[in-house]
From TrEMBL:
Domain of life: Eukaryota
Annotated InterPro entries: VPS9, VPS9_dom_sf
Biological source species: Vairimorpha ceranae (strain BRL01)
Domain annotation VPS9: ranges: 92-229
Lineage, opening ranks: Eukaryota, Fungi, Fungi incertae sedis, Microsporidia, Nosematidae
Pfam families: VPS9 (PF02204)
Name of protein: VPS9 domain-containing protein
């Protein structure tokens, strides 16, 4: 058995051979490629990513040149952020105010208070989509779930869309939403490979909708009776003053 065959039997390299199923490469090229990939993977430490999040984008750029489908990049992203999620996701002190406001309005707010005119089925679907974000650890998966909500509501007028988003967030009752948004902004994958599994989305449009989400959270933080379709007396009764 050749030296190359022996090395490739090593479980560490087998892992990469199974993961990076790249066609049209001869056997010796597989060896060179996976050796390089494995060395680069070892150097991509949690501390390096935390100190400089852009290095992970460099890693994705490198992988993109070696892969043929976005599905493989996505699997690699899952591996990185599922394993070390607790290291990357950090709760911020600014979450306290937002969490408090969501607690205040979650059970009390009604669609009419935000001029939301949607069927109950649609509203429940929106809430289901946004609520699921709290269980997701992968930055790009969180973003794609949010973009699914956008896809269902983007044909609305801007003010109507924003009201639906605010109402959905309040009813979804997600904790530490500002920290989640910061996490996505910092670590989301910006490198994609067009293939049958993935259509590359407009990055400027994605940035816009992330900003819209941030605006919605800020609106909730400062929301009072004058921001709602309600009188001051009705508001005070609503929140139990």
């Amino acid at each position: 058995m050749s030296k190359i065959h022996i090395i490739l039997q090593n479980s560490k390299y087998q892992r990469y051979i199974l993961f990076y199923n790249i066609p049209n490469l001869c056997f010796i090229n597989y060896y060179k490629l996976f050796t390089l990939l494995f060395q680069m993977h070892k150097s991509l430490t949690v501390s390096k990513i935390l100190s400089n999040p852009s290095v992970i984008q460099d890693y994705y750029i490198f992988l993109k040149s070696k892969l043929t489908c976005d599905k493989s990049l996505h699997i690699k992203e899952q591996e990185i952020f599922s394993t070390f999620y607790a290291e990357y996701f950090k709760r911020q002190q600014t979450d306290y105010l937002l969490n408090t406001k969501i607690d205040l309005y979650n059970d009390r707010i009604e669609p009419i208070h935000l001029n939301v005119i949607e069927s109950k089925d649609n509203i429940n679907r929106y809430i289901s989509i946004i609520s699921s974000i709290s269980d997701i650890k992968i930055p790009t998966d969180i973003l794609e779930k949010y973009l699914l909500f956008i896809k269902l509501t983007r044909d609305k007028e801007h003010d109507t869309f924003l009201n639906i988003l605010v109402y959905t967030i309040l009813k979804s009752n997600i904790r530490n939403f500002k920290s989640i948004v910061t996490y996505v902004i910092k670590y989301r994958r910006r490198i994609f490979i067009a293939c049958e599994h993935k259509t590359i989305q407009n990055q400027s449009e994605i940035e816009y909708y992330i900003n819209v989400l941030s605006v919605a959270l800020e609106f909730i933080e400062r929301m009072e009776y004058k921001d709602l379709n309600i009188t001051k007396d009705e508001y005070e009764k609503l929140i139990g003053i």
